[in-house]
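Posting for a labmate who doesn't have an account.
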Amino acid sequence: MTAALDNLGDLGPYDLEIRRFINAPASLIWKCWTEAEHLKQWFAPKPVVITTCDIDPRPGGRFHIVMRTPDGAEFPVNGVFLELQENRRIAMSDCLQEGWRPAEKPFFSAVVDFIEQDGGTHYIARALHKDEENRKTHEEMGFHEGWGTCISQLADLAEGMK
């Protein structure tokens, strides 16, 4: 299993990564990622809520959510799924929109790997940025804290589905 965890490729200078072990099978984590009713429950760090979740989990399929903060500010996230390997990997990007149209303001791509071991799943999420400035901006926005909170929410949901 160590080989699978180590064979994800090297992090580039503009990448951010977070790893967690979730005590649930990859199939449940996959379900939480690919079914809108589940994605809405964990994808934004509480107390932020997702008011819109319109996803089409297939290569080229849309990924559109709207997050709303407690003060009412809304933040849309638009992109496409690039790669889906059931129960193993999801890659997506805001650099493209549905229909392979270029995005007006691309920010990053994400690759999430699920590696099963001992009844649970190693969850490895990477945010890939075009340059140092975008990586630093994402880090200063609270990448580790925000994504960490979301992964904890994902873990709670998936573990509760067992």
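Reply:
Got it, the structure tokens are right above this. The helical segments are 2-6, 26-34, 36-42, 132-140, 143-161.
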